[in-house]
Amino acid sequence: MRIFLTGATGFIGSALVPELIQAGHDVIGMTRSDAGAEALTAAGAKAHRGTLEETDSLRRGAAHADAVIHVAFDHDFSRFAENCEKDARAIAALGSALQGSDRPLLVTSGTGMGSRGDGQPASEDVFNTSHPNPRIASERAAYALLDEGINVSVMRLPQVHNPYRQGLISPLIQVAREKGVCAYVDEGRQRWAAGHLSDVVRLYRLAIEKGERGARYHAVGEEGVSARDIAESLARGLNLPAVSITSEEAQAHFGWMAMFAVLDMPASSALTQARLGWVPTGPTLIADLDEARYV
Q1: Which residue from 279, 270, 162, 168 is spatially nearest to 216, judged by alpha carbons?
Q2: Hey, which residues does 110 pair with through a beta bridge?
Q3: DSSP state of 184
Q4: How would DSSP label each residue in 100-157?
Q5: Residues 6+ apart with CB under 8 A from 295
Q6: Between the CA of residue 109 and those of 176, 199, 235, 282, what are the distances in Å?
Q7: Are 141 and 87 in contact (CB under 8 A)?
Q8: Phi–psi pair at 182, nearest 5 degrees
Q9: How far is 272 from 253, CA to CA, in rounded Å?
Q10: Bridge partner residues of 217 (DSSP)
Q11: Are 34 and 17 a contacting pair, CB within 8 Å?
Q12: Rounded to an integer, what distance in angstroms lies between the CA atom of residue 107 and that of residue 203?
């Protein structure tokens, strides 16, 4: 297939490009920079200049593709809600280019959207329409397209990691350096689901090749890693103490990260594994954190 990929030079996208090419697909990767275009060309992909803000560029990229994978997201969390709405507009634009066809569109969301709010792992068969996370806008945009007849499905991400980056844990490292401690809230029982980058990109490929209209997939290798285990691993790597703080202290300590630091976010991928024959095999989150490059 000829696949249009947004976010093609980002953390996930730059690993997904070779995964798709090695499977025999042609990749058109969106980038905003000359350096990004050069990197895509070197990787064997075709570069398409565009941005999330320029919806016409999204439509042009998707117009002649056999399939679209939307990975790009603006990770400026100081404007998180605004960026989630921007993502919804981008999804609508991509979908408009696929009207009248059965060409698949795979968009990205978070595993929290599958949480029932009862402490059980989030599941693919749940869409929590009352979830407070602003990222819900991405899935609402996807299901609006589904109602319009677009062949859309959703990839929900946990903390995606390798030894160099670890999702929301990467900014925690900066907080720890600034504060001089690696903190967790209360007893540190909050759990974050995780998935190794190599497993995640393989799942994106399987989902675009074999996925079903309206399906939701969880790129989860570990259902839940405790906040305390994460903090203690960071403490080993940074040579800092791991300490407990109260939930009342979380805002002052973590800043914008506080909204995530207090959340219990386990998630299952049992249905995804059964539907697509996907078996995660990559290193665990703690193994990658223990090998992380902190310098």
Answers
A1: 270
A2: 157
A3: E
A4: TS---EEEEEEGGGG--SSSSPB-TT---TT---TTHHHHHHHHHHHHTT--EEEEEE
A5: none
A6: 27, 17, 30, 21
A7: yes
A8: -105, 105
A9: 36
A10: 155
A11: no
A12: 13
The predicted-structure confidence for 204-233, as pLDDT tens digits, reads as follows 999 999 999 999 999 999 999 999 999 999
- Do residues 62 and 98 lie in contact, with contact meaning Cβ atoms separated by under 8 Å? yes
User: pLDDT, tens digit, for every residue of 95-122?
Assistant: 999 999 999 999 999 999 999 888 899 9
pLDDT band at 76 (very low <50, low <70, confident <90, very high): confident
Give residue 295's pLDDT band: very low, low, confident or very high (50, 70, 90): low
Structure tokens at 259: 């909204």
How many angstroms separate the CA atoms of 59 and 281, rounded? Answer: 36
Residue type present at position 152:
V
> Which pLDDT band holds residue 280 (cuts at 50, 70, 90)?
very high
Contact by Cβ (8 Å): 114, 220: no
Residues 11-28: pLDDT tens digits? 999 999 999 999 999 999
